[in-house]
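We modelled the chain as a single entity of 257 amino acids. Its sequence is:
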Amino acid sequence: MKECILRIDNLHKNFGGVVAVDAFNLEVRIGELMGIIGPNGAGKTTIFNLISKIYEPDEGTIEFDGQNITHKSQIQVARMGLSRTFQNVRLFSGLSVLDNVKVALDAKANYSLLEAMFLLPRRWKREKETTRAAMECLTLLNLDEFADRQPGNLPYGLQRRVEIARALVSNPKLLMLDEPAAGLNPEEVFQLIDFLHEMREKYPQTAILIIEHRMELVMNICEYIYVQDFGKTIAKGDPTEIQNNPAVIKAYLGEEA
């Protein structure tokens, strides 16, 4: 059995009197692709924000790569190999696609401010390494032809893929995708599904955790799914089990289970 890369135990988060996450538990292993689904307001994004340290939990523990990260900072967990995207595309419109991807590698720059100001050799060496790594990532994901384009001039579906490339370029141990199909039309959703399948083949050691409400995406790519409703986990299992679960049908359709 593969090593567990993310373990969450009894996670709780309240906002005033509203319970956003109630006793959430999760395990993700190296190379797995797991999904968290649920209606709007189910607590999905709150779970992501707790894992990526935007929020502090009220109770519970989060372990990443064998370390307790419950009270670590966003910067610390990012440097440990946790990367994420957001529901809204957050690309820099004034930069090229290549430069947008390179931004994710800036934290690994090992030159000083003085070296950067005076364009000293180590700064140039690091810049070449960063450009090479970003282009390799874009090439692997078949996005290299757009390297010199500005993201605002690309279709929305391609912008989504560029954002995923930016999250992947640092070779994270865990990639978290926050509603990657948001705003996509049906054709773009199926293009995204193909893209994610290819991505898994090229980054087999990267575990992926997705939150999404587009069922056609989740059911096509996830190995195991957790279903949230009003902060609680109401079901978990493989896609077939989830599709036939009465509690899931009730949560999504409002029908009696």
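As a brief sanity check on the tokenised model: The chain has two domains: 1-81+171-256, 82-169. The first strand starts at residue 4 and ends at 15.
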